[in-house]
Structures are given as C-alpha cells and as structure tokens.
Amino acid sequence: MYNKNRCLWVDDDERMKIYHDTVWGIPKKKDMDIFEAIVLDTQQAGLSWKCILHKRNNFARAFCNFDPKKIAKMTKKDVARLMKDSGIIRNRLKIEATIENAKRFLEIQKGFKTFSKYIWSFTGGKSIVGHPKNLKNYRSHSTESILMSNDLKKRGFKFAGPTICYAFMQGIGMVKDHTVNCWKYKK
Fold first, then answer.
1. What per-residue confidence (pLDDT) applies to 45?
2. I want to staple 71 with a disulfide (CB 3.0 to 4.6 A). Which of 86, 102, 137, 184 is the partner?
3. Which of 126, 164, 124 is nearest to 145 (CA)?
4. pTM for the full predicted model
C-alpha cells in the first residue's frame, strides 16, 4: 500500500501518506468530520499541512475533541490557557477564530438542519474532479471556493479566504485533486 504513486505534495512522512490515502479527497458528509476540517484548516493558514497533521491529536485535546458546542462556550480564560499550550499553534487570532467559527457553525447547522447540507451546496452536493498533472497545475482557489469564502465571511467566519476554503474543499472531498499519475486518481 505504501509503495504506490501518490500526489507530488506527499513526502516520505508516514502520516502524510496515510492522510493522502485515507482522508484527502474522500467526501465527508458528517458535520463533526467537517467541523474538524474547519478547525485544522483555520490553524493551518500560512503553515504546512504536515505541521498541522502532526499536531492533530494535540488540537483534538485542546479543542474538546472538535466538539463545536463545547468550543463555542470557551472563554477568554480558555484562550489564555491555550496560548500556553506548546502542543498547538499558539496564535491568538487562530484560537479566537476557532471559537468564533464554532459559534457560526452552530448557527448554520441550526438554520440548514446540518452544516453538511449548507457547505456541500457550493458544489451542488457533488465532488468536483480536477485533473492536475503536476504541482504547477494545482489551483489555489476556484469559483466555488470564492463563493464559499464570501458567504462564510458574511456569516462571521474567520480565516475563511478563498485559498483556505479551497484547501478545506480538497480535504473533505468536495474537490478531488489527485494528480493524474496518483493511484487515487484512478479510483
């Protein structure tokens, strides 16, 4: 399984290989899985995915196992505590954004019955399949990620620019961007 051709962004790191093979580009429709991706992509802004992936368990611990209801209740005291947590990214804006995004997530969830229904509406409920041939062919955003970004920002989300939204869409399988020589592309 681990001697297969993969997308060129995957290096020799085992966690990256497992993430690529079992998570990236696979459609996620459960709200909890989607919210976890929102938290991790918020933290990833400006950093490498490898860094975030290696801290995933620390983020789960720090952010109530990615439970938006619990995160939405976090206070300034929690922010101060998390700013001292060396296991996560100690960026006040990202920590506060995670709390704010949890509140907005719950509002959307209430209004649409599920957050999944809302977020997947940007692609008509289906995955968009890309055909990148190499790293140069990867897009950093799309029409859909721009629309998503604008709507999320209008609803009060933080760290929700078009590039972050596009990475999020790739992560939860709204966009399948495996390179044409990757074993996952053929699937």
1. 92
2. 102
3. 164
4. 0.94
